[in-house]
Design a protein that fits this description.
about 280 residues, six-stranded parallel sheet, alpha/beta, 2 domains, TIM Barrel, Aldehyde Oxidoreductase, domain 3
Length: about 280
Amino acid sequence: MIIEKIVKLALEEDLGLGDITSDNIFTAQDRARAEIVAKEDLVFCGLEIARQTFWLVDEKLEFIPLKKEGEWVKKGEKVLALQGATLSILKAERTALNFMQRMSGIATASREYADIAKPYGVMIVDTRKSQPGMRKLDKYAVRCGGARNHRMSLADSVMIKDNHIAAAGSITAAVQRIKNAIGHTPKIEVEVTNTEEINEALAAGADIIMLDNMTPAQAAEAVKLIGGRALVEISGGINKANLADYCQAKPDVISSGALTHSVPSKDLSLKIIEFIK
């Protein structure tokens, strides 16, 4: 249901007042065939939301997938084909492409990160730094690329961050309040920035320790200090260029907001290949 709402909102934004160009060139009887082509190498993602986009405009459009989600696609390869009303294809074109381009960009980056981390046995996950209103799509694209999801929302797991600690007075106080409120079953993650905070988090009973904005050398020392007493996540400032250095610190998990907050979209293009008389 949330996906349909997202698509409807996007179509309303682009098509709410009509298409002054297409509506005055073509009639409802005009028919065409079209293809969507990759203009660069990418991990394809967004097929199903593209299907919903085109079918919400016109459920009679013939939608023909040519590639699978999560598949590497080379520049020049076709990912899907369409046949039906010319007006419908043109009216849904930009919205569908916007979804696929962003999602393919995220999926491609996720595949690249996951491939770098795989030899080290490190799990790559995203963050909540997603496009507002688009989190479900952004996180699906991460999974499509081969990485994994961190929290979908604030309700998913306990993560005690710097502002929680500041407001509670200490790591110990924040952890104790959580334990008193929700019991012993949920895992508790605590964000730390130095050795003193690591020791306090361990003493308080943290299950997961997030090393925030440490250098690779600092992270490696922190992992040694923790010594398997808690799962270790590294976060903050992670990018493709420095990812291998952080993997060498041997954490369990590395999270990167860059997978969703600043990844470039991939180039896909729709071309009308034939007008059907």
